[in-house]
């Protein structure tokens, strides 16, 4: 039984979890993969840093090439994050015939095709289950379990940090900045948390999921992105009154071979299963033509859930090594990419307006919707107790994005409209 040597690039939140699982589950890992797995070198930035796991100082190095050029190492597990250095090390590892496991969605969303091409050229495995939704096995599900189906929609809460923040704001009325600090302390947030709160982390994950689900090479620039920082307590309170929770959703849809992908705060009807996904939990809803509706739920970030996916990938690599095969997750060929136009993207919408509180205003507002063919599901109006204006909350029926943009442009130009406070997509 040949021992498999692993070089670990990074010993932060996720790397620590990988060391723990490899140590604690050694017997099971060997019996499932056919080989003992040993971490023989670990790259860190600062060897003198205090760590919440004890590892032999001999294992640590701050020189990446000690790991990547080590001929004894069979597999590189990249959990250091960042793009340029991680990419350089992974490509250098592949060049030397090393198999790769990574949690790096930033890298896979931007450079996945180049990395997969190098892996194919060198006959190596590249697995990245942990890159999307932490502990949920969604990548395997899309590439393996649904290979027989035609997926039409992937919709999910794929960022744990923002879901943690929105849950605390909704349930406890907590302050945004305070909860973000808590998410950072718990190891959920990215090194630069703006990528969580501005929606880019979710956009990278949706790039990966839609590429795999629609078998189409989706680029990060194809994803329309909106983050959570503009969500107010008022929006959350109104949503609740009307039976909605505000969630940051990644939404990828396919219709007549055309696709659209977005990340945006969304009012989700409380009866929809995504509305009750709280805290750091993630969930991904997948609709396939044959299978119908499915949903996958679990911890989307954090040390051990994420490490579970990494070590499962490691087992897959080792199994393949022992069988003498490679099992890259990718495609022989991709479908042609056709993006939906704004006229083809339709959804229900929630709009909160502050308007002058006088006769005829509501009629003027509804007239604008009628002009652009947007039909309304409900309209609520009531005076604001503090300020001399009225609040109007409108829920539309399905309306296309182009028409909605024209409606909003009209509102911007109307004297009776003091401000367009918020606009959300509505699901459920
Ligand atoms: N945290 C999570 O819940 C999840 C994270 N991920 C992804 O996993 C990856 C790792 O995340 P996480 O563990 O949270 O990150 P951390 O910041 O906690 O850890 C990063 C580790 O990499 C080391 N490192 C970083 N840059 C360098 C460098 N230039 N040279 C040498 N070592 C370096 C750090 O060294 P040192 O310790 O000395 O500072 C640290 O050990 C990221 O790609 C992230 O997006 C994916 C899913 C969930
Ligand atoms: N920062 C990310 C970590 C996992 O990918 C998140 O909060 O989901």
Automatic annotation (TrEMBL):
<keyword id="KW-0521">NADP</keyword>
<dbReference type="InterPro" id="IPR016204">
    <property type="entry name" value="HDH"/>
</dbReference>
<keyword id="KW-0560">Oxidoreductase</keyword>
<keyword id="KW-0915">Sodium</keyword>
<protein>
    <recommendedName>
        <fullName>Homoserine dehydrogenase</fullName>
        <ecNumber>1.1.1.3</ecNumber>
    </recommendedName>
</protein>
<keyword id="KW-0479">Metal-binding</keyword>
<dbReference type="InterPro" id="IPR045865">
    <property type="entry name" value="ACT-like_dom_sf"/>
</dbReference>
<comment type="pathway">
    <text>Amino-acid biosynthesis; L-threonine biosynthesis; L-threonine from L-aspartate: step 3/5.</text>
</comment>
<feature type="binding site">
    <location>
        <position position="105"/>
    </location>
    <ligand>
        <name>NADPH</name>
    </ligand>
</feature>
<keyword id="KW-0791">Threonine biosynthesis</keyword>
<dbReference type="Pfam" id="PF03447">
    <property type="entry name" value="NAD_binding_3"/>
</dbReference>
<dbReference type="InterPro" id="IPR019811">
    <property type="entry name" value="HDH_CS"/>
</dbReference>
<keyword id="KW-0028">Amino-acid biosynthesis</keyword>
<dbReference type="GO" id="GO:0046872">
    <property type="term" value="F:metal ion binding"/>
</dbReference>
<feature type="active site" description="Proton donor">
    <location>
        <position position="205"/>
    </location>
</feature>
<dbReference type="InterPro" id="IPR005106">
    <property type="entry name" value="Asp/hSer_DH_NAD-bd"/>
</dbReference>
<feature type="binding site">
    <location>
        <begin position="9"/>
        <end position="16"/>
    </location>
    <ligand>
        <name>NADP(+)</name>
    </ligand>
</feature>
<dbReference type="GO" id="GO:0009088">
    <property type="term" value="P:threonine biosynthetic process"/>
</dbReference>
<keyword id="KW-0520">NAD</keyword>
<comment type="similarity">
    <text>Belongs to the homoserine dehydrogenase family.</text>
</comment>
<dbReference type="GO" id="GO:0004412">
    <property type="term" value="F:homoserine dehydrogenase activity"/>
</dbReference>
<dbReference type="Pfam" id="PF00742">
    <property type="entry name" value="Homoserine_dh"/>
</dbReference>
<dbReference type="GO" id="GO:0050661">
    <property type="term" value="F:NADP binding"/>
</dbReference>
<dbReference type="InterPro" id="IPR036291">
    <property type="entry name" value="NAD(P)-bd_dom_sf"/>
</dbReference>
<comment type="pathway">
    <text>Amino-acid biosynthesis; L-methionine biosynthesis via de novo pathway; L-homoserine from L-aspartate: step 3/3.</text>
</comment>
<dbReference type="GO" id="GO:0009086">
    <property type="term" value="P:methionine biosynthetic process"/>
</dbReference>
<keyword id="KW-0486">Methionine biosynthesis</keyword>
<feature type="binding site">
    <location>
        <position position="190"/>
    </location>
    <ligand>
        <name>L-homoserine</name>
    </ligand>
</feature>
<dbReference type="InterPro" id="IPR001342">
    <property type="entry name" value="HDH_cat"/>
</dbReference>
<feature type="domain" description="ACT">
    <location>
        <begin position="350"/>
        <end position="425"/>
    </location>
</feature>
<dbReference type="InterPro" id="IPR002912">
    <property type="entry name" value="ACT_dom"/>
</dbReference>
<dbReference type="Pfam" id="PF01842">
    <property type="entry name" value="ACT"/>
</dbReference>
